[in-house]
Amino acid sequence: MVMKKAIAATILVAALGTAAAGTAGAAQAGSAVSAKAVTAKAVALTVKPSVFVVNYNDVQVRTALSNGETLVSVRDLSAAIGAKLSAVNGYTTVTLDSHSFAFKTGVKQASVDGSIINLNQAARVLDGTAFVAVKPLVQALGGTMALMKDGKLAINTIKLLAGGDNARFVSASQAIVSVESDAKRTDYLVDVATGKSAELLSSEGGSDLVVAPGGAKAAYTDAEGAVYVIDLASKQTKQITADTSIKTELVWSADGSALYFLQGDKGSVIAKVDIATGTISKIVEDKVDYKSALSVSPDGKKFAYLVTTPPKATADGTDLDKDTVDIDASGEQVQVNLYDTSAEKPAAVALTSAKDDKLFVVSADGSTVYYVSVADENANATVVSVDKDKKTTTLLAEGDVEELVLSGGKLYALTAVSDAQSAIYEVDPATAAKTQLYNVPASASGLAVNGSQIIIALEDGLYVNANGAWKPITR
Amino acid sequence: MKKWFKPAALIALAVSLTAGGASVASAASSLKGKIVINGSSALLPLTLQAKSEFQKLNPKVKISASAVSSIAGPQSVRKGIADIGAVDWDASVDVPGFKKFDGQVANPVAVTVFAAVVNKNVGVSNLTTKQLQDIFSGKVTNWKDVGGSDANIVVVNRKFGSGTRVNFQLKALDGKDFMTKGDNYKETGSSGDMKTAIETTPNAIGYIDLPYVTDKMKALSINGAAPTEKNVLNGTYKVWGIGYFMTKGQPTGATKAFIEYIQSAKFQNGSLKKLKFIPLAAVK
Question: Which of A264, B6, B138, B246 has its CA 20 to 30 A from that of B94?
């Protein structure tokens, strides 16, 4: 059903002339501006006020319908998209970024970036201002058009970021998006309402940016392991510590005064660095290797994490031709551990014992832990919780869960419900109530959530959900 | 099935994705399988980090990674108990001490830097190739003979079959032989055991790959060059090698996808560097 809707919409966009006329008409009906009949080349055209959605904002522009095409006031649309107008020898040139559209009233041709194109009809002067067909004008300037379901014509000329990935919300209005290249990663701040992006940080070998509570700053490590914090408004970066020990994960404290991290190539130590002083202190040093997926309670006293126990391999290298090597996987496991530093005798406690793979581990309080449980390749993955008393509960078994995030105390899961389709579920851990929010393509991934806002990655870019509709913020 | 969600032409298209109502079906098609990896302990932290990230993209691929020594990697592949043999040299060709493994393909995954390391009580911070040869062959037995205090040197070596040992012998000792016995000589079975031995044995010297170096030991400069990525790339530090994932023939399926993930720019420039390995592209 979704596909049918979209195909229909695509067809409508292709037949924009007819559709746009309807748009103009619809806008006219509700407008306080009176229409005015004018005459051009002996054909009476009616100039009407219409509402276009230009770069996600409602904008009123003057339009007219001629021979099935919607003409638009060049002046009005240029103002709406921020294009420059210039006139030389009777030709008017509209310039936006690197694109230009030059036309002359009464001439059925235009120059697009220096190349001549034919127009279905010449530009004309109506009501004292130049009008030209909206479709070739927008396309010439690198914009795109679509019909919204309320009948309005949407025009977008914002150049979307190419190749963005790994979206993380900073606030209700902004997300950090990363673009990887062969040599470096560049992080951008993207306006989720418009897709407008601005470079934030370019780094070689740096870790992902970890956004602090409140969204004012983010932390990262450089390739050497030194820790930095960047102010997301000023883009000013400050080194917190030059310590070069390996730090595999960074987790902000609830008050933003410290960063917790797993230290060492095997993530053996849980440590923290004070943001103000750069002082590093070790919190858990229990010689247990391969910790990962660290969560910290708001009071900084409880730590939840995974511990991976690899299989035990043995080899007798005395006669290489005999291949006397063996792998004993009987003890292999990945378990959720809890370490409570406020306990009388602090020690790691394994909360789980099953030998499933545990992915996307999250915890709001450092005690109750949520994760995606993958028992084996043929079983559907589920969302499971485990509390400090080792009680496990399956919270979501709908479909085959692929991703899990925690936002505002609620869980959001991306789950494959068929070979062609996935769904996004919201789960309230307090009540175990689950709600299917959206159906999305099976290719969806990279789920990011901020309250009611959701970002997903599809094959052609990142999309944000706004008021029930998905719109791209990267391409 | 993403065709309905075509990109640029549908900017701001308010055709919402349907809410609710989907029937639960069987698992969506995705990459499935199990990958067993064994071999180099130097490469294990890298392998496990890649496993963690890869499984988030491919939850139905189970990855079992273990380590004992480099030579056990291609041996495990030959024996048929592992899909990937992690090894600190190209085991598809002959190297000193080890014959090639016929039919195996060497898939490069990382550049590993190896460091000579000493217990923190050792006052020496730099040794020449000649001094290292003399120490590891047993010719020099007291730290005072190489600029340190009067204390017997404890030589910690990796067991035969270690890729770290192969690389250290070739590149730090210029091929000279190790001592094999003595009161102040011990051998360890893995990088982790070497780390523990150096951290806890006064006057000890050994060698280890850079990610294992901790603040409880000291990494030595060799011929005046510290073991850093910068010095590897500018050519002043010579003790490094390429780590490989050996496979029986060209990798396929999940194994191929996992190797490609480790070789990807995202992993090479991200987690791999964070773990103090050097991206393959940096030394080409």
Answer: B138
Angle CA A135–A138–A139, to nearest 5: 80
Q: Quote the CA–CA distance of A233 and A216 in Å, as a whole number.
A: 7
pLDDT in tens, B246-279: 999 999 999 999 999 999 988 998 899 889 899 9
- What is the DSSP code (8-state) at residue A120? S
CA distances from B72 to A342, A343, B28, B175 (A): 44, 43, 36, 22
Q: Residue ranges of the alpha helices (H) in B35-142?
A: 44-57, 72-79, 129-137
Going by their DSSP bridges, the two strands A469-472 and A185-191 should be labelled as: unpaired
> In terms of Cα–Cα distance, which of B276, B192, B68, B168 is closest to A226?
B276
Report d(CA A454, CA A425) in Å as an integer: 11
Cβ-Cβ contacts under 8 Å for A28 (sequence gap 6 or more): A35, A48, A49, A50
Q: What is the pLDDT of residues B150-179, one digit of tens each?
A: 999 999 999 888 889 999 999 999 999 999
Q: Is the model's pLDDT at B6 over the cut of 70?
A: no
Beta bridge partners of A295: A304
Please tell me what DSSP assigns to residue A257.
S
Contact B67 A313 (CB under 8 A): yes
Q: What is the pLDDT of residues A48-63, one digit of tens each?
A: 999 999 988 899 999 9
CA distance linking residue A82 with residue A335, whole number of Å? 56
Give the pTM.
0.80
Instruction: Of B247, B245, B112, B92, give the one whose Cα is nearest residue B167.
Output: B112
The Cα B41–Cα A328 span in angstroms is 16
Whether the pLDDT of residue A313 is over 80: the answer is yes
Taking CA–CA distances from A397, the nearest residue in chain B reads B24
Residue A377 has pLDDT above 90, yes or no: no
| pLDDT above 50: residue B21 | no
Minimal Cβ distance to B7: which of A185, A381, A461: A461
Residue A419 has φ and ψ, to the nearest 5°, of -65, -25
The verdict on a CB contact (< 8 Å) between B274 and A223 is yes
Domains present along chain A, CATH in parentheses: 2-156 (3.30.457.10)
Residues B118 and B132 sit within 8 Å (Cβ to Cβ) = no
Q: To the nearest whole percent, how much of chain A has pLDDT over 90?
A: 73
Q: Residues of B with CB below 8 A from A457's CB?
A: none
CA A377, distance to chain mean position in Å, is 28
Q: Could you tell me if B128 and B282 are in contact, meaning their C-beta atoms sit under 8 angstroms apart?
A: no
User: Phi/psi at A427 (nearest 5 deg)?
Assistant: -125, 130
**Which residues make beta-bridge pairs with A37?**
A46
The residue assigned the tokens 């199990």 is B34
pLDDT at B5 over 90: no
And the tokens for A431?
A: 């009540």
- Residue of B3, B6, B24 best to disrupt the A interface, most CBs of A under 10 A: B24
Q: Can you tell me the ipTM of this complex?
A: 0.80
Torsion of CA A25, A26, A27, A31, to 10 degrees: 90
Q: What angle do CA A246, A252, A257 make, to 5 degrees?
A: 105
Cα A237 from Cα A217, distance rounded (Å): 10
HSE, side-chain direction, 13 A CA sphere, residue A334: 25
CB contacts, 8 Å: B82 with chain A: 327
pLDDT tens per residue across span B189-202: 888 899 999 999 99
pLDDT band at A232 (very low <50, low <70, confident <90, very high): very high
Model pLDDT, residue A294? 96
Average pLDDT over residues A60-86: 96
Q: In angstroms, rounded to a whole number, what is the distance separating the alpha carbons of residues A302 and A338?
A: 7
**B23, A22 Cβ separation under 8 angstroms:** no
